[in-house]
Amino acid sequence: MSTDINHARGRFEGTLRGLRGRRLMRVDYWDVHNFGPEPAPWDFGDWHHAVMGVELGTDRGPVTVTWTDTFYPYGVEVLDEPIGYRPASGDEGPERVGPDGEGVRAWSSCLGSPVRGAECWWERFRIGPGRRADDSVAGAAYSIDVPVAVRLDFPAAAVWFVAGMPQLSDSSTSFIPADEIMAVFSPDKMRSLGFDDAAFLRRAG
Description:
There is one protein chain. This protein is mainly beta. It has helices spanning 3-17, 187-192, 198-201, and strands at 24-31, 47-51, 53-58, 61-68, 75-79, 95-98, 117-127, 130-131, 137-139, 142-153, 158-163, 165-167, 170-175, 181-184. The strands form four sheets. A five-stranded antiparallel beta sheet has the order 5-4-3-1-6. The relative contact order is 0.19.
């Protein structure tokens, strides 16, 4: 693993550890500006489509859960900063899209509570080998670990953030990893996304 990737993983895991003990006060989902007559849907019951990412307002400042290509390919990223530091802004830039109304209920047992634990699910991807147009090898194959999901534990519940792109015509199907964020509230939904590790699906005691 290269020095840059080692540094990125160390920073990532340090930020994740730093969430423990923070009290969650607010949750905001962000998406690109919606030009349609109706707001883009985000509430799908046991999961929410946060799209660009989530800003978690905590008692020690904002935290962003979004996707980046830090580790390649797309993976989940946790940043100790407001989400507004990332996307370009302006009249047609990203905007807050939720959660509001009934959709807040999924977060009700977490708001006002401290983060008791934070874990990441890493997957190893094999990339390449790179090939030229004549099918000759241009670069050796290599493997890389990518963070594809994060679990935050609260005293009464757990929430998973997945770098995944749901197919809204068939909400049981999602591309993982991808350049969108899903907030998931049940182990059953996580299993349907292909996560089958019992330890990762169980809230830490």
